[in-house]
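Predict the 3D structure for this chain.
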Amino acid sequence: MAYYKRADVYLARGSPKLALSDLKKSMTLKPDFTPALISHGNVLFKLGHLAKAREDYAAVLKYDPSNKEADKQLGMTRTLEERITLGDQLFQSNQHEQALDAYSEVIMVRQ
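Done. Predicted structure below.
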């Protein structure tokens, strides 16, 4: 629990990498501690590591299928991954303005 609490302090101080380290330690000590899993996923989400964040949210739902926050964040993560894929496809087909719109939407949501 102390690692989880210290991670909150690191986040409040604007140190997400230090928070990730403590959250990982907390998750190692208690893999089913869903608040740490959600916080870890949220930090990864903000840093743009969507696939890893998705894994954390999915793990929360394994332990607690009715967890509304994890369900919401998992849905948001999947939506953003889809928008990135769309942006990639648009860029590859030289539809640059639409690609910019798709990527900009992802950036706005992650802030």
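Residues 2-110 form a domain with the Serine Threonine Protein Phosphatase 5, Tetratricopeptide repeat fold (CATH 1.25.40.10).
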